[in-house]
Amino acid sequence: MRTGSCLCGKVRYTIKAEPAAARLCWCRDCQRLASNGTVNAIFPSESIEVRGVVAEYVKTADSGNQVTRRFCPACGSQLFADSTGRLGLTVVRVGTLDDPSSIKPSANIWSASAPPWACMDSELERVERGPVPPAPKKA
Predict the structure, then answer these.
(1) Beta 78-83 vs 125-126: how paired, if at all?
(2) Cα–Cα distance between 50 and 52 in angstroms, integer?
(3) What distance in Å separates the CA atoms of residue 36 and residue 128, rounded to the nearest whole number?
(4) Which of 12, 41, 66, 101 is most buried, by the most CB atoms less than 10 A from its CB?
(5) Residue 45 to residue 27: CA distance in whole angstroms
(6) What is the 3-state secondary structure (H, E, C) of 16-77?
(7) What is the DSSP letter of 132?
């Protein structure tokens, strides 16, 4: 089980599953959210219990999928994202976990969008654009 929260603590969550995947994303949307790449883990949606109110923003991503990003309306922390390209799976921003070191990304994705100064671990797989979505794992 993993737990996490937003910066101000008004939104807390519990995850009762292992991630289907964990990746460092360099798409332009993630760069705009974090001024850098974002480390994201993908979990079965039903395994995540959220306490507190989240706001959401929907946008069409470069992949063509509709992405609903959920964040704390008080402090603005980006917490979750759901995509029409990964039904039943939810992205969790690894930095919001109480123990972010419990997850290690396996790849840099959308690396073609990364700025030249981006620090990418050469031991991680490098995917120029979007990867194939992972299959949902049971909670």
Answers:
(1) unpaired
(2) 6
(3) 16
(4) 41
(5) 22
(6) CCCCCEEEEECCHHHHHHHCCCEEEEEEEHHHEEEECCCEEEEEECCCCCEEEEEECCCCCC
(7) P
Q: Output the pLDDT for position 133.
A: 63
Find tokens 């922390």 and name the residue.
Answer: 77
pLDDT of residue 34: 84
- Give the pLDDT of residue 37: 83
pTM (predicted TM-score)? 0.83
Residue type, 22: A
Sign of CA dihedral 114, 108, 58, 1: negative
Residue 3 sits at the vertex; the CA angle it makes with 81 and 70, to the nearest 5 degrees, is 20
Consecutive 10-residue averages of pLDDT for the chain (139 residues): 97 96 85 85 96 95 87 96 90 96 88 82 78 58
Q: Quote the tokens at residue 26.
A: 């360099």
Q: Which fold has domain 2-117?
A: 2.170.150
Show contacts of 118-126: CB within 8 Å, 24+ apart: 118/26, 118/36, 118/37, 120/24, 121/24, 124/24
Contact 51, 79 (CB under 8 A): no
